[in-house]
Amino acid sequence: MDGLDALKAKYLAALGSATGEAALEEVRLAALGKKGEISALMSTLGKMEPEARKAAGAMLNVVKDEIDAALRAKKAALADAALDERLRSEWLDVTLPGRPRPRGTIHPVSQVMEELTAIFADMGFSVAEGPQVESDWYNFDALNIPPEHPARQEHDTFFMARASDDPRPPHVLRTHTSPVQIRAMMAQGAPIRVIAPGRVYRMDMDQTHAPMFHQVEGLAIDRDISMANLKWTLEEFCRAFFEVPSVELRFRASHFPFTEPSAEVDIRCSWKDGQLKIGEGDSWLEILGSGMVHPKVLASAGVDPTQWQGFAFGMGIDRIAMLKYGIPDLRAFFDSDLRWLRHYGFSSLDMPNLPGGLSR
User: Fold this and answer.
1) Is the pLDDT of residue 185 over 90?
2) Phi, psi of 106 (to 5 degrees)
3) What is the pLDDT of residues 213-256, one digit of tens each?
4) Which of 57, 112, 219, 263 keeps 20 to 30 A from 101, CA to CA?
5) Per-domain residue ranges for the chain?
């Protein structure tokens, strides 16, 4: 069979000049494809005499194998060249100093939640939780809040949408964590000592108020609990939280539907040089509300008010965080400003505990 050497030389030259995968595929199809020149020559073997067919077939197979081997070698060479180019372009000098990554911090609200949990746990309080979307009964009725109370109006409370023909009272975004106290008493009965930290919602927004904020409430029910126990508990909490040797609290008579008697609590402080100092000075600062749990609230939660009594209190977590760490504007808590978080945030390893100190 004549012309095989020229055919082989043509395709080997084409492979040598190919510069990419597409060019290689064109050469392969032209030489070895079903309609390629080698395949066309193979199809003519059937018309030859046996001896001539045997000799021609052997020569064609040699040419086919040489072209196929050259094709594979060229493909491997192109792959190596592509890898070398990629390594060159993606080269990294590992001896250069690394670029520092942004350092995450613990939000002051999360930190203060951990701090107060550690303090109250030391006094025997456990943590109770409940849903943020509450029924009208848990949020108001069970807490002795009458239908005409301002808190049950739309200017103060976020009501959930409901069908116009639904006769049931609408659900609300809880306005306090007091419903958790009801749920805890219904689930555990008495005696009980719990705190209920979490998000609450009210329609208010200024420098010291937000429509969503954080609150912690405490509840202690037993047979012989009095206001004296409440006073000691709050004094111990304030002393530990503000990390001062002593505090002085002042109880002022007040009114809350769910406690009787009720009291607002002030703490002695000073504002020397614009800096708040707890436990000294001639000024007073309101920090929380408290009182003895109303008998109707106990009865709503399934606790016999003739056998059990106790105290409850509530305070804003954001507010006490502002007081302790000198944060001037409540709205900054929710701005997600990394600069603010780096300044006021806490290390993830700074876990508060009473023996080691609550804060940095």
Assistant:
1) yes
2) -85, 130
3) 899 999 999 999 999 999 999 999 999 999 999 999 999 999 99
4) 112
5) 4-89, 113-344
CA distance 108 to 120: 18
> Hey, what CATH class is 113-344 in?
alpha beta
The closest alpha carbon to 289, from 267, 313, 268, belongs to: 313
pLDDT band at 303 (very low <50, low <70, confident <90, very high): very high
Q: How confident is the model at residue 2 (pLDDT cuts 50, 70, 90)?
A: low
Rounded to the nearest 10°, the torsion over CA 247, 253, 259, 264 is -40
Q: What would the two tokens of residue 264 be?
A: 């607002």
Amino acid occupying residue 299? A
Q: How many C-beta atoms surround the C-beta of residue 149 within 10 A?
A: 13
Please list the residues that pair with 283 across neighbouring strands.
Answer: 269
CA separation for the pair 147, 117 (Å, rounded): 34
What distance in Å separates the CA atoms of residue 61 and residue 1, rounded to the nearest whole number?
A: 12
Q: Is 359 exposed, middle or buried (0-12, 13-18, 19+ CB in 10 A)?
A: middle
Q: Which residues contact 307 (CB under 8 A, 6 or more apart)?
A: 190, 223
Would the annotation count 286 as a binding residue? no
Find the distance separating the first CA and the last CA of the chain, reported in whole Å.
92
